[in-house]
Amino acid sequence: MSKKPSKSNNSPALQLGRAVEWPQTPEKAKLDRVPNPQAGTDYLVRFTVPEFTSLCPVTGQPDFAHLMIDYAPGPWLLESKSLKLYIASFRNHGAFHEDCTVMIGKRIASEIKPKWLRIGGYWYPRGGIPIDVFWQTGRVPKGLWVPEQGVAPYRGRG
Fold first, then answer.
1. PANTHER family annotated for this entry (predicted)?
2. With CB atoms 3.0 to 4.6 Å apart as the test, which of 17, 42, 78, 99 could cross-link to 95 if both were Cys?
3. Residue 78 labelled as part of a binding site
């Protein structure tokens, strides 16, 4: 049986349950974590972000993506309001698709220390070319059920 983390290890000022300002950049955004009450059990958590936006670092035009974030929690869970604020901080952030997708995955992994994490970035076409970006922390824990992300490859009008 895993030992639960003490609340003293967690930030006392969670963004949950109170008004907070929208972070202006991903670097200024705070990701909150909360103790995992099922830390001794392997299970999967999925966040679906169907309306992710960032800016092209060259043209300044908006880029749109459907993000799928799957993780097997360790001692911590990712608090969803803080994820929403973090994701929103990319709206005025200029970065390539690959950088945004991997940056988000690495930041979440470093904050919550999951047993495993993967992110799929399914980017809508710009200039006629869709880009899909995938990143994960390592191997899937043995016996963990990981469903397909369920985002179809871009097929245009076909």
1. NADPH-DEPENDENT 7-CYANO-7-DEAZAGUANINE REDUCTASE (PTHR34354:SF1)
2. 99
3. yes
Q: Is 66 annotated as a binding residue?
A: no
- The pLDDT tens digits for 99-112 are 999 999 999 999 99
Entry pTM:
0.89
The DSSP H or E segment spanning 98 is helix 97-112
Residue type, 124: Y
C-alpha torsion sign, points 129, 130, 135, 140? negative
110 annotated as belonging to a binding site for a ligand? no
Percent of the chain exceeding pLDDT 70 equals 91
Q: How far is 22 from 56, CA to CA, in rounded Å?
A: 21
Please tell me the distance from the alpha carbon of residue 17 to that of residue 125, in angstroms, as a whole number.
37
* Order of strands across the sheet that contains 116-126: 45-55, 62-72, 116-126, 129-136
Amino acid (one-letter) located at 19: A
Point out the residues that are catalytic.
Answer: 56, 63
